[in-house]
Every structure is written in C-alpha cells, then in structure tokens.
Write a structure and sequence with these properties.
zinc; RibonucZ/Hydroxyglut_hydro; MBL_superfamily_lactonases; alpha+beta; Metallo-beta-lactamase, Chain A; binds zinc ion; 9 helices; 7-stranded mixed β-sheet
Length: 332
Amino acid sequence: MSQMNDSAPKGVGRRAALSALAAAPVAAALTLGAPAPARAAAPKAGPARGLVRRFELGAFEVATLSDGMRAGEGPHPIFGQNVSAEEVAALLEANFLPAGRFVNGFTPTLVNTGAELILFDTGLGEGARPAMGGLRARLAEAGVTPEQIDVVVLTHMHPDHIGGLTEGGAPAFPNARYVIGAAEYDFWTAPGRDSGPTERVARLVQEKVVPLAERARFVKPGDAVAPGIEAVAAFGHTPGHMAWHLESEGRRLMLCADACNHYVVSLQRPDWHVRYDMDKEAAAATRKSLFGMIAADRIPFVGYHMPFPAVGFVEPLGEGFRFVPATYQFDV
Ligand SMILES: [Zn+2]
C-alpha cells in the first residue's frame, strides 16, 4: 500500500490514488491515453438502506419499519453494568464491533392480518425528528396512511415506544383502538410515579397514553389482539413489558420488543445487567427463558432494538445465544 502512496502525485491522498488506479484503464480506453478531465464531484448522500422490510407469515403480512437509528457511546456501561469495561470490549471485539460506540435501532412492526392493520409500538415521535421519529414516513413508503391503522399495541411504555402516539398534540392514528398491558399501565399511572426516577416516563404516559385510555383494552399474558396474535409475559425491562407471539397457517414469529436490546451483548451474555432494564434480574431471567424458547423452537423473532430490519433467529451459544439475521427465509 505504501508503494501506491509513494507513486501518487504529491498532495494526492491514498484514496485518490486508488480511485485513479481503478479508473485508469477506463480513462485510457476512452481518451486513447490523454488525461481524463475530472468530473464534477457529487455531494455525499449519507448511508442508504431500505427502511421498510415486508414479508409474509402464513396469511399475515408483517412489515418492520425503521423509526431511526442513533449512534452513541457504549455499549458499556449501558450494557454490562455489572462487569468490567474490558470484559464487554473483549466480547465486542470478538464479534467485529467497536468498544466505544454503538448504534441503536428503533423498529416498530406492522402486521396486516388480512382483516386489520395492527401496529406494534410507535417510535419516538415528532419531537425526535429529523434524526428519529421516522415511523410515519416509513408507513407512507409502505403505502399505509395513519388513518388506516386499526389497532395500536404498546409492548411497554418507554418513550421510544409511546412517543409516536400523538402528532401535533392529536392522536397520530385517529381511527385506532389501543391494546395496552394492564400491569404496565397500572404501574406508570400509580400515585407518586410522577416524581423520582419514574418521573420523566410517568409524565410522558400522562401526556401520551392516559388520554387514549377510553379507547384501550387492557390485556394480560395469554390475551389475544386478533386470532393468532397473543401476549406473552416478558416482565423485567419494565414491570408490564410483554412480547407478542404471532402464528398463521403454522408459521410463527415472536415480537420480542425490548426483551433484549443489543444483538451481541444482550443475547450472548443475557445475565449482564442493562441500564434500561428496571428489574435487572427479572429482565435477565426473561431473556434466558424467552430466547431459550425461540432457540428451541427455531422460530424467527423481531427485536425492537436489533439491527434493521430487526428480524432474525437465535441459536444457543455458551451461556447465551447467537443472533442470526434473517435473509431470504420468508421470500421462498
Ligand atoms: Zn425500547
């Protein structure tokens, strides 16, 4: 590589030298050896990837919709609170990930049962734009208007899941009814939650969720939102956090919501504590039991914070699980 640099004209970087090398045969063919004029440089457009992933699950159609992705510091000490930074760094390095920065994705799921459009979680909402809060744009890309949403299901009430319930102070999905975990609602609306560590979220719940309660059905594990779509206990991340199990024509999928929040750290080391988990031990127990079941049954899952498109499988690996991103399993 240093030889390439050495042969490049003074002041031309290695990258320019490499692209000049790559372009050279083409330029030579076009100009019979005369130097090719530089073309106008196009502005960088930023990372690009599809932000809607839609696939069939039996008679259902499932779409994962990116509300946004956010880079920040970590994963440690957000993940692995109860272990050393070095231990987390070693695990990340073994998985080809940097130790100092990580990207968190936010991915609501839309299920078309054939009879209804059911949206699971609503993203961060308008206050987080333009970087986040992209759910409505994704719905538009998917050809769905907010008015068409029949049901909004909340897996739990953290801000990145309830923020998109309103738009301009009004319900963002004006024709929807709501399905909400009873334990979750009862926790966040209990007297005294609007002070101390629960203050911020409890106030947001008062603003975003409580006004919708009259259009809500409050559910517990085992309850269904539609035939084949049932709530599954996944407590720990929050007191009433629930996953949702989908089954249609023998095809199954688990919407795991925030049962795991990092595709390497949370899954390979389910016992490591996570700052976002309100009850660390209960969340760890849920990770092990829920993903143990998914691994044993070899069924796919959607994880709200998995790398987009947030769909994959897990297989047992050591004390935890290895994440296997879905590719074309739903397309053949
Ligand atoms: Zn979340």
